[in-house]
Each structure stands twice: as C-alpha cells, then as structure tokens.
Amino acid sequence: MLDGVDLDVAAGGYLALVGASGAGKSTLLSVIGGLEPAQSGSVVIGGQDLGGLSRRELATFRRETVGFVFQHFGLLEALTAAENIELACSLARVAPAARRAKVRDLLEAVGLADRARHRPVELSGGERQRVAIARALANGPSLVLADEPTGNLDDASTARVVTLLESLPADHGCTLVLVTHDLALAERASRRLRLRGGRAVEETVGASTPSGVVPSGVVPSGVVPASSPPTGRGMQERAAEPGETP
Amino acid sequence: MTWRDAIRLAARTVRRRPGRAVLTVLAVTLAAALLTALLTISTTAETRVLEQLSSGGPLAGIKVAAAAPDPGQVDQDNASPGAPKSLDDAALTQISELPDVREVVPIVSSKVYVITPARDRDNHRIGPFVEDLVGVDLTRVSQLPITPVAGRLPSPGATSEIAVTQGYLERLGLQRVDAPQVVGTALQVASPQVVADGGQFRVRGRWVKATIVGVVAQEAGDGQFLASAEMVAQARDWARAGIDESRDLKLSTSPYTGLFVVARGIDNVSKVRAQITAIGYSTSAPENLIASVRRYLHVVEIVLSSVGIIALVVAALGISNAMLAAVRERRREIGVLKAIGARDRDVYRVFLLEAGTLGFVGGVLGTLVGWAIAEAVGRVVNGYLAAQRLVGVQLTLPWTVVVGGIVGSTLLALLAGTLPAVRAARLPAREAVGGG
User: Residue A166: inside a domain, yes or no?
Assistant: First the structure.
C-alpha cells in the first residue's frame, strides 16, 4: 500500500528506494513499471500516463520502455541464457538475425558470451543476474527497475552486478530505479528515497546526508534537482492524498 | 511473440517437468491407444463379416445376367431376370468402360450330363443327371464370389479338372465336413449334341473324364460344377454344333452366360447397377443385405468409439488438471513474462501450445500403441481361426483412425488447455515481484 508518494525522477537519474520489508518499495516499483495500477493518483513515465493505458498498451509500455531486474532473477529455467534474452527481443518482434546479433552483443557486454548456451540452473547467482540485466536491456529501455538485485548474491557477485547496473545511466542513457535493503549500495545512488508504511519519509540527494523527514509524506519539489525535467525520459509519480480526487 | 518462439517455449517447458509430462502424455496415450485398437478391430471385424456375406468375393461385386432387366425387380438384391438377351463382347466393353467399374469377369456355362461312381447313403448307385458346368477365367478367381472349402480350384486352362459345390455333396447325401471325401474322385462329364437321324433327333455326347480337385462355395453362376472357361467353351462349342440347340437343351445363344462386375467401392454398387440396367441387363448384388449388416456393425463401431472417446475425455481432464496446477506453480514465471512485455495472448498461446503438445505426443504414441495392441489381438484371433481351419483376418488400420486419433487427441487437449491458458493470461503482471 502506498500513500501520498509524490516523486519526480529525471531522465538518466539513479534513484535508490530503501526501507524495511513491507514499506512499499516493491509496490512502488511495480506501479512505476506498469505491473500494477495505482488505485488513485497518476503515474507518468516519459510523458505517458499509465492510468490511461489498456492491458495491451501496458504490455507494449513494459516491452519498449522498461527493463526489469528481479531479486529472483526471473529467468525462464527451460531456456538458455541466450534464449532468455532472445525471448524479450521476440516479444518485440525483432527479426531473427538482428535478435541473434543483439543477444551476442548483450552477452558480451555483461561478460557472459561463453555462457550463452547454459541454462540458468547451470549458472551462478551472479551470472544469472547479469543475464537478467542483459535481458532487461534487450529492447533498449529508457527505464530500468531493479528489485533487490543483489539480495541473493555473494559479495563478489554483488560488486560486479552493482558496477554493471550503475553503468547503465551513463552507457545506455536510461534511468535506474533500484530497490535495496543494502544501505551501502543505496549510498551510491544519486538520490535515495526512504519509505515507511507506504509513505515517503526521507529523501537524500547526492551525498549520503539525509535531507530531512518529510512531514506530509509528500516529497517536496525542492528536493528534485532543478535540472530535472518533469516529463520526457524521466518519470513522475504522485499518489493521491487520502480524500483527494485523483 | 511469434508462433515459432511460442512453440519452442512450450516444448521446452513441457520437457522441463518430465514426470508430470510423462504421466499426462501416458493418460492421453492410453486413451488414444484404446480408441485406435477398438476402431481397428471393429473395422477389421466389419470387413470380415461382410466378406463372409459375399462368400469370399469382393463386396462391390455385381452379377449381370444375359437377360433384360425386369422393371419390377430392379431394386431387389436377387432380381429375377427378364427376357433373355445376348451378352456379347460389345456389351462387355460397354460395361467395362463405365467410370465406376473396376473389373469385369465374364462367366460361361453349359448343360452337361454327369455320371458319378459315388453311391448315396443307402449304397445305391446315383444315376446320370443333367447339371450346369460353370466356367470362369481361373486366373481372376480372386475377383469372384468363389471360396474353396476343401481341396483346391481347377488349374487355369485345365480341361479335365473340376470343382464341385455343396449342392453336389447334398446330392450324394454328404455334409460340408465330408467335403474332403470327394476330392480326388473322378466323374464322367458329357456335353450333349442334338443331331438329326432320319427324321428323328438323337443326342450324342462328348465324354470327358474329369477329376474333382476341390469343393467350393460359389455364386458366380448357377451350377454344381466349376471348371476353367476353356473347358466350358469346348462343351458349348460341341453342343452348338448340333441342331435345335436352344429348345431341347435350352442352350443360350449368348456368348456369355453372365458377367461379374466389380465396382470401385461398395458405395458405387447402386450407381453401377443403375448404369448397367440402363444399358439393358438384369443385375443382382447383395447391397441391401450388406447395407443392413453395415448399419448394425456401425452401431457396434459407435459403441466402441464411445468407450475410446470417454477415455480421451478423461485424459483431457487430466491435461486440464495438470495445466491448472502448472499455472498455480508458475505464477511468478507468468508475471516475469508479462514484465518483459508479453501480452495476454502471448501467455495464452504458450499455455495452449503446451496442452496441444501433450495431446499431440499422446495421440501419436497412442495410435502406435493401439495399432500394436490390435496386431497382438489379430495374432491371437488368427491363431484361433487357423486352429478351426478358417482363413485368418488381415488387420486394416484406416487412415481416418490414424488422423482422427492424432488430430482428435490434439484438439481435445487444446480444448482442455483453454481454461488454464485463459487463467494464465489473466494473471496480473505484479506476480513477477515479491512484496516489500
């Protein structure tokens, strides 16, 4: 349950969502990614109001605009690493030849070119997560949403996955929103939003110094960098206040 | 998602859970096998019964008499012929050229005097008697309603070998089981010729000693003796060399006594009969009898098919159950598919194809297993028939059963997979993400 979360993220930004279990981090991620509709309020991603989209349009939105990385990796066990990535391209109706080239490039980019024919069960946790990242990038998303991406990884794998994820805004020009319990990881983000009981209670920008508790649960516009555009490749999320008409 | 990708994903997913897939496929296999075996056996039984009805001849056989049709008898199986009418080569050619006629076998016959050395039950000598000698081209006997009961058929072209019918056995006071007793015995057969002798008519005979080589059940022509066409032709030529041939000895001037016409399939028998009637000849065929028997056999087939179909429906429910369980277990996977952009119809397609794959594989295996079961049953039945000195059965697997078994299993599986596929398609995409 989210309550009165008002959030603007600039294109190419890196936002970390932190909070205890049940705080609403994953729910917020689902709402932003079009996996779950907001019961009230509006979610605007890249100028597109998700509330007005049909199921089919939402599928198109997820396919073309968003790349998901899950804690549980979300790879299809029946398919190889390459086929998992290819599946995302297939859903976007990419031609087979282009698909194969894309898969090859992505696997090389995540350092798994030699593991293309391995099924997830034959890969380590870190390798699976890198395949998942490659799949998330398959259709050139402008927004990558990562839900506890290092939650199931050892330290070495975590470092590699984090490096990979953090390179996305610069290398691929996409916005990264990351849910994590790991405060050290969150500290590396350009912005951090702490959730508690579905409410945004604290936001920090840049350095790890807290910007203060937000009394109303609504992130003040002042904490959003002046350079951040309200629309475009960035996103806006604002859940309605109790009693407010969306 | 393209169909190719969906098929690949469905096939891989089925293989990923081999235990469940094997059990589900096994249920479909058993059901399809049951259906295939029952239909194969019932179809073979139907053919066998119909063959028995037609005395071993082809089911699509039509007897054509050297007579005009009687308008009041046209629709009867054993129509009484009308006035005699010459059945010559021109008529034979005309009938052979009918589009639905596969083969025409001419039949000739001649009256003969017969002297047998056999004695009746009271040990009295049996006096000479007049009987019809039926001649056919013995190289084409498989096309005729002629079945050996004991011994063998006369050799093609032989002029001193004959086969006798059960009518001859009855004349001797013998039963069918006594048939081997007459095989190998000899008869004196004479074709009569009427000649004028000083204002009187005198009959003289051309005597031939013929050996009985077999006992047959035959409906090719009316007569207790069956011989080669050549032997009968000699007898006819001798008789015709005399005078008054068609009055005292009732010799026909028709080159052929009759024809045995084989239509292209049982379903064309009526049509061919009508065409031959239009040409001007009387015909007979056991089509009404066969139609009645077929109707009863069809009922048996329906009952047996129903058993197989019920088994298939039970198997389909198994598929449905397995697929519903799969949907419950794979909620997160479905959510992930949607998270990476799969539409509802993509998910629907993958699950439907999984069900279809199970049905198709089960259908193929079931058809093969069913055929094997039918073969095994056929061997047992043939062993029994051989012990009874009866001709064995040749199993036939109709292509409709093969196609029906595979396509039917697949379609039923697709139907069974519809509900689970709809449920999977309607699952929300948020299933991909755990709470937090």
Answer: yes
Q: From the CA of A120, how many Å to the nearest CA of chain B?
A: 12
Q: Do A59 and B338 touch (CB under 8 A)?
A: yes
Q: Are the beta carbons of B436 and A148 separated by less than 8 Å?
A: yes
Strand partners, B283: B64
- Cβ of B336 within 8 Å of Cβ of A35? The answer is no
pLDDT digit string (tens) for A83-125?
999 999 988 888 888 999 999 999 988 888 899 999 999 999 8
- The 3-class SS string of A100-148 reads HHHHHHHHHHCCCHHHCCCCHHHCCHHHHHHHHHHHHCCCCCCEEEEEC
Rounded-to-integer distance, Cα B43 and Cα B40, Å = 5
- Rg, C-alpha atoms of chain A: 18
The domain spans of chain B are 3-53+292-432, 61-285
Chosen from A90, A179, A196 to mutate, greatest number of chain B CBs within 10 A: A90
Write out chain B residues lying below 8 Å of A94, CB-based: none
How far does A133 lie from chain B, in Å, by closest CA?
Answer: 12
Summarize pLDDT for B356-413 with one digit per residue, the tens. Answer: 998 999 999 999 998 888 888 888 888 887 776 666 777 777 788 888 889 988 998 9
**Residue in the block written with tokens 């006096």:** B127
Q: Quick check: is A81 in a domain? A: no
> Is A95 a domain residue?
no
Q: Chain B contacts of A23, Cβ < 8 Å?
A: 436
Give the ipTM of the model, two decimals please: 0.81
Residue A118: inside a domain, yes or no? Answer: no
Read off the pLDDT band of B73 (50, 70, 90): low
Domains held by chain A: number: 1
Give the domain extent around A46. 6-76+141-238
B432 touches chain A (CB under 8 A): yes
What CATH number does residue A34 fall under? 3.40.50.300
Picking from B306, B273, B276, the residue whose alpha carbon sits closest to that of residue B287 is B273
